[in-house]
Amino acid sequence: MPTTDNAFATALRLVLHLDPALREIVALSLQVSLAAVAVGALIGLPLGAALALWRFPGRGAVVVVLNALMGLPPVVAGLAVYLLLSRAGPLGQFGLLFTPGAMVVAQVLLILPIIAALTRQQVEELHAEYREQLQSLGLSRLRRIPTLLWDARFGLMTVILAGFGRASAEVGAVMIVGGNIDGVTRVMTTAIVLETSKGNLPLALGLGLVLLALVTLINGAAYLVGETARRRLG
Amino acid sequence: MPKAGLILAALALMGPSLNAAAQNIGHITLASTTSTENSGLFGAIIPAFTEATGIEVRVVAVGTGQAFEIARRGDADSLLVHDTEGETRFVADGHGTERADVMYNDYVLVGPAGDPAAIADAETAAEAFALIAAAEAPFASRGDDSGTHRAEQRRWEAAGIAPASPWYRELGSGMGATLNTAAAMDAYAMTDRATWVAFDNRQGLALLFEGDETLFNQYGSVRISPERHPHLKHDLAAQWHEWLLSEAGQQAIADFRVDGQQLFFPNAE
Prior knowledge:
The complex is a heterodimer.
Chain A: H1 2-17, H2 20-53, H3 59-69, H4 74-85, H5 100-136, H6 141-151, H7 153-169, H8 172-178, H9 188-197, H10 201-233
Helix pairs in contact in A: 1-10, 2-5, 2-6, 2-7, 3-5, 4-5, 4-8, 5-6, 5-7, 5-8, 7-10, 9-10
Chain B: H1 2-22, E1 27-33, H2 34-38, H3 41-53, E2 56-62, H4 64-72, E3 78-81, H5 84-92, E4 96-112, H6 125-135, E5 139-141, H7 147-158, E6 168-170, H8 175-184, E7 189-192, H9 193-198, E8 205-209, E9 216-224, H10 234-245, H11 247-255, E10 257-258, E11 261-262, E12 265-266
Parallel strand pairs in B: 1-2, 1-3, 5-6
Antiparallel strand pairs in B: 3-9, 4-7, 4-8, 4-9, 4-12, 10-11
């Protein structure tokens, strides 16, 4: 297949030449997705843990909604954030639309349910295992959250990586709220859509390969860090 | 701890660029169409404008229908689209203060090089559309309420035809995506000439019909109403609007070439 061959050649050329436009796009992709993952984890981890520990009326419904939101279509998240941040919307005065900030907000909306829902499941299982020990230590539920999160850290790392994967792969949300503006809000995925629409399929696929390589690198780094920590801690 | 590492890395990375984007000094947001952006026109003319005025132009390239919506909600400082009827209505409804002709090019009909409906021999655009319908040859329509889609619908209407599936396929896609699909299913399609010339994935598609005056494609610049949207950068947007119509702007448009071919013809009054 000529397109595929060209794509590999294009991907190699892009990487070897360190094309400045590509560097900018890659940097922005990482900034936006990592920022979204950071915010998503800061909110999602404690939220998921709290949901695992507390019992309240309607909890089942919250769990179901959270699980369902893992399948939220990115374009819907993008549209919701667009309407929120648009000048005619409730948060319009901040002028966030068509900025990387808006893209982070949209991606947080996509990642948060994944991190919270998977964290709840992991912490709940762990808690079932350690409940009596924690009770005998006299720890309040609030105090148990950091303990349980720390104990579940290796599993939660995969949860965070799942969130990162969702963020770096989606295009529907960042396209709408970012606008794919050259040099301002253009990221890897929106650049791929643009090149596809120009009929420049080798470049589009080449960019896709670069993105895939990048995500693999980050996952590899996370794996190494995790393995090292696991071995050191026995 | 990996999580802390990730967060630190993210915060370190996000600092400069998010701040820079929030500063909002000296740039305008222009809602425009995919044809102008994808053909490379903006990449060619905006640097000249920025050099002359110091104003950066950020282009959000979408279908004309969506561009109107973005402008209506106050999310763009200026509008450059190709639906004269829609633009006039936009101004009449009070969303804009004025519209002006900037440039034109034309629509062309492309299709499988074998031309099963024989539209290459048609005398008029209406005849070409009628031939496609008579042959029930696959036709890929944008179907996305864009300027091109609206123009295409007017051509069917003028030919007295109500196109129907299965041969008439509404894709709901941008121009480039529509051409990709048309190439894959050997369908006819109507496209603006700029997107066609700059398009790389033609496969078996060829330009089959052109030159009818009803395929004229006018682009207009619209100024947004300061009363409706006082927060917009009207002074900067006015400079952009005036520059497009000025001799310098018109010359920059005329000088833009793809493969030696002029794609947009300035016609400001």
